[in-house]
Amino acid sequence: MIRDPEVMSGLQDSVRRFVRERLVPAEETVAETDAIPADIVRDIKALGLFGLTIPEAYGGLGLTMEEESLAMFELCQTSPAFRSLIGTTVGIGSQGILMDGTPEQKDRWLPALARGELIASFALTEPESGSDAASIRTRARRDGEHYVIDGAKRFITNAPEAGVFTLMARTDPASKGAGGITAFIVDAKTPGITLGRIDRKMGQRGAHTCDVLLDGVRVPAANIIGGVEGRGFKTAMKVLDKGRIHIAAVCVGVAERLLRDMLRYAMERKQFGQPICEFQLVQAMLADSRTELYAARTMVLDAARRRDAGEDVSTEAACCKYYASEMVGRVADRAVQVHGGAGYVADHGIERFYRDVRLFRIYEGTSQIQQIVIARGMVKAAQAGQ
Ligand code: COS
User: Fold this and answer.
1) Which 3-state string (H, E, C) describes 168-227?
2) Residue whose CB lies within 8 A of the most ligand 1 atoms, among 100, 153, 234, for a mutation test
């Protein structure tokens, strides 16, 4: 749903200009220094990008899913690290509070998140619990008006920058599955929290992940998202449903950029006396990429519109994440191929994107998890006679 086409197209224009004028020229610096320059972080805040999905009542832009997807199509036509800075606040880090939080929790946290003063991070994965999210071991034990949390979280995006965590912990040790899990809002400054060293990753330099270790971390009982124990797994799954459409939109944005670079190179580069875009085998790579990108873009917008209309899009969100993340992997591979030797050396940035996009098939649920979610959704719908 697009609420006001004129406002939306103004937002798309300003993000497009920002990407072209500020972010693309900084890509190399970010890759070399593994950091986003402070002046760019300041401009990202000033543009209101941290508040994209936080309702206007809390100082954000309150974008619908369709609007958010269109914004991501633009913002992600550059290194994914820039999106990652706002990604956990716009997406999985804040959405639990937004979807299931109490009015007091929303008042307390959302305005600072919308302004970018606080970065929110989503802490679900653990050393022994990745795809099997219901098996988390991090324990939260009630102690008067507090819970004491002990455990370890792994690969937590933006943990080094986070001011607050949406953190899933087991409050009922008797229940080994999803029902014993509770979602907490954890202030990152709480004593007992330590961070591991920043992970050295294959790509996405400038976006940081690390372990979050919790040792006797006292969190007020009032910080249980929604105030009720045992609902944390469902909160996390709902957050991921939305997050998967978001990541699919991110993949579409990055693929747009790669395809544009690929086409430009194919039109400029001459071999055998003519631009290589005249060769049918190169055309096949361009055409396959355009076709798959178009399909992914259309899927994302369809799922986003359905979600905005109030439909349960768990299955469609998984379809989008699965297809778009695999699609951008193929497009990046063809981009390297069309660039040939120039794609393999670091100068053109193509090999950097090739490494960057590999993550999309893994985080917020691997492709294999998306396949499981899709097939289960099909069976469930068939059983319900839909
Ligand atoms: N929305 C709301 N509730 C949901 C849900 C969703 N999308 N998906 C599952 N649930 C509910 C189920 O209805 C069930 O509730 P009841 O016990 O009341 O019936 C409960 O949650 C448990 O669901 P289920 O039995 O399907 O859980 P599983 O342990 O089988 O796990 C998968 C399901 C595999 C889909 C889940 O563990 C998953 O998504 N894993 C990947 C995690 C991930 O993406 N990690 C990335 C790290 S975060 S960047």
Assistant:
1) EEECCCCCCCHHHEEEEEEECCCCCEEECCCCCCCCCCCCCEEEEEEEEEEEEHHHEHHH
2) 234
CB contact at 8 A, 221 and 145:
yes
Question: Homologous superfamily of 120-228 in CATH?
Answer: Butyryl-CoA Dehydrogenase, subunit A, domain 2 (2.40.110.10)
Pocket of ligand 1 (CB under 6 A): 122, 124-125, 131-134, 178-179, 233-234, 237-238, 240-241, 314, 363-365, 369, 372-373
Confidence of residue 168 (pLDDT cuts 50, 70, 90): very high
Query: What integer is the mean pLDDT of 99-108?
Result: 98
Ligand 1 atom at shortest distance from the alpha carbon of 133: 37
Q: Ligand 1 centre from 211 Cα, in Å? A: 23
Mutate to test the pocket of ligand 1, among 237, 246, 322, 372 (most ligand atoms within 8 A of CB): 237
Amino acid identity, position 173: P
Query: With left for phi above 0 and alpha for psi between -120 and 50, is residue 269 left, alpha or beta?
Result: beta
User: Could you read off the pLDDT of 215-248 as tens digits, one per residue?
Assistant: 999 999 999 999 999 999 999 999 999 999 999 9
Q: What is the pLDDT of residue 271?
A: 98
Owner of token pair 């206007």: 56
Answering whether pTM is above 0.85, one says yes
Q: Kindly give the number of the ligand 1 atom that is closest to the alpha carbon of 314.
A: 7
Atom 4 of ligand 1: nearest residue by CA position: 234
CATH number for 5-115: choose from 1.10.540.10, 1.10.10.2910, 3.30.230.10, 3.30.450.20: 1.10.540.10
Instruction: Look up residue 376 and give its DSSP letter.
Output: H
State percent of the chain over pLDDT 90.
99
**Residue 176 pLDDT > 90:** no
Return the ligand 1 atom nearest residue 243 CA: 49
Which residues are the active-site residues?
Answer: 364
